[in-house]
């Protein structure tokens, strides 16, 4: 053995081995990169290369804690109970359900739970098998983080539940899929990628942010994220798409996107589409509100004419989740996030803003709660005003949900802590009316699903 280890090797052989190694490294890197762009180009080779490249990450998950979906530590959560608690005591109301979307750190996969209000008891739970659901995806966008399209890391962001217990699910920048009550696929859209919110319009169609795979704007980088608004039928047909940058440009706001030395690969960052369900003094049925985070802008857009009906930039900053409160007011989850180059942070605390179209004023809701709870939601964040005066606040960054009572006290609180004490991300939840929840539970109870 010693003689073998210290034997002389010809220089030409060393050089030849180095060249072969270099060619192999370049080819391997190309296949890994190509597997993220379009695995159909070299399906077997790309799959093998990607599997090899993921070995270190796989070993890390097997031998240690999976940190991909962990939240940042926050001392205010240290003393809070795991799961649901009732700081102000149990009380009556509101009636209905919460479709809670969360990463289950104990099970190491995402879960969707239908929780009854106000007792906060889980009535049904979906644990979707992403490995199976996305097995036949034909197209992987260059904007997607497809390495997380697996059972351990795929997040069901803002799932939508049909009356029959079906779910429409997606991650950020992923295909869109509808599954039945047992989690079996009904349809899949992989020609586009979808992200952020999913909202239903008055005709039963879903409005979901998407990205243009082929740019409609000339002279931008390949990495430019051109947001689009997409309308999808319950049967999985794309009925309408339109570019958000094009909307701005055609309405005279090119300077908001491409002024000198302010280029961004992600200039608008569309994070919510809120359909208008009925005519009012300030909007029409079929209009949509858009939340454009990276320019701190809320827009009211009319797809039927291509017109921006109304638009306001601030006083909210890096906002999320615009909701219609009544015929003249909207609410906005004001993250108050700032990016000053060296770091991204929340200035003070996040807040809930209300804009009144009738008198052009902005007011703030639940500020005492947001401040006392030190809610600093750097990204995402949802606010839902419930019919009886309660409100749901989802602090996605710190993985907690608050049910705020009409008197301003916290009626219920949820912290998404795993059995090992770690806290994992929430996945954008939604309120379900009692009638819709009861109807879905009736169907789910009759579904005969394989274990």
Summarize the structure in words.
It comes from Sphingobium fluviale. The chain crosses the membrane at residues 12-33. This is Aryl sulfotransferase. It contains 9 helices and 27 strands. It folds into 2 domains: 1-53; 76-446, Neuraminidase. The protein has helices spanning 2-5, 11-37, 43-53, 55-63, 130-133, 244-250, 255-258, 367-372, 434-446; strands at residues 83-85, 96-104, 109-117, 121-126, 160-161, 167-169, 174-179, 185-194, 199-200, 206-211, 227-232, 238-243, 270-275, 288-292, 297-302, 307-313, 320-324, 329-334, 337-339, 344-346, 351-356, 361-365, 382-385, 391-395, 400-404, 410-415, 430-432. The model has no long low-confidence stretch (mean pLDDT 89). The strands form 7 sheets. Strands 1-26-25-24-23 form a 5-stranded antiparallel beta sheet, with no helix packed on it. A 4-stranded antiparallel beta sheet has the order 4-3-2-27. The radius of gyration is 24 Å and the shape is globular. The longest helix has 27 residues, at 11-37. 19% of the residues lie in helices and 32% in strands. The chain is α+β, with helices and mostly antiparallel strands and 451 residues long. Helix 2 crosses helix 3. The termini are far apart.
